[in-house]
Amino acid sequence: MRETQSLSHTKWDCKYHIVFIPKCRRKVIYGDLRPYLRELFHELASHKRGERLEGHLQRDHVHMCIRIPPKYAVSMVVGYLKGKSAIVIAVGLTQLDS
Description:
Elements: E1 5-6, E2 11-12, E3 15-20, H1 34-47, E4 51-57, E5 62-67, H2 74-97
Helix pairs in contact: 1-2
């Protein structure tokens, strides 16, 4: 049976496979940041009422299967995920360097 979500007048099941890459394919996802990023993506998706169903952090890119309500544009949610995670990676790298 399909798991459908519902809003006030709709039932929906919108799942998207998203792949994104850090700038210049920098190999920053592995190492000390990897366990933290897994939880971060889960938390950020829930901020937009989404749900991270599955995800894989590769050395230079991220694969995610995410459920997003039709109320939000996919590009808006992906931009939010990339923007907030980029800030965390930048802050994490400066803390690791010092």
